[in-house]
Design goal:
The protein is α+β, with helices and mostly antiparallel strands. The chain is built from three helices and six strands; from the N terminus they run ααβββββαβ. The strands form two sheets. Strands 1-4-5-6 form a four-stranded mixed beta sheet, with helices on both faces.
Length: 140
């Protein structure tokens, strides 16, 4: 039996394309209660040329953190590289372009990346992937 992953992704994205549900999701993932007064800004990337999403969910909570969440049905060791391209585009979206050319330091929200996996292949409950693992010439 095969699963339409595009359908699953769109259900996930539609379900969590709401500030209150995002707050609830984040609180559940972190095991905390999040103050409903703290603002959430959704900044999920869209592909202008193909009218499609680039990443599943991206949002800023208050002025502290940017979260980029990917929903995966297959294990993918390239997620750090994919997320690097996402976070650059999210920062481009939320930071005034001209600010980069001024002498004052541009403060940016600290990113936190979470990948949700629901595939059939066995995987640890928590798994940390590092971008540096993809760098050539660093083998031991």
């Amino acid at each position: 039996m095969s699963v339409n992953t595009k359908y699953k992704d769109s259900v996930f994205t539609k379900l969590f394309n709401d500030e209150d549900r995002l707050r609830e999701l984040y609180a559940a993932l972190e095991g905390i209660e999040y103050d409903p007064a703290i603002s959430i800004t959704i900044n999920t990337l869209e592909d202008v040329l193909y009218m499609d999403r680039i990443n599943d969910l991206s949002f800023t909570v208050g002025d502290k953190l940017v979260f980029v969440i990917e929903h995966q049905s297959t294990l993918n060791q390239n997620m750090p590289l994919r997320i690097l391209s996402y976070i650059v585009r999210v920062y481009e979206k939320i930071i005034a372009h001209r600010a980069l050319y001024k002498t004052a330091l541009v403060k940016i929200p600290k990113p936190e990346f979470i990948v949700l996996y629901n595939g059939l292949e066995k995987a640890p409950e928590k798994w940390e992937l590092r971008l540096s693992d993809a760098f050539m010439g660093l083998e031991a």
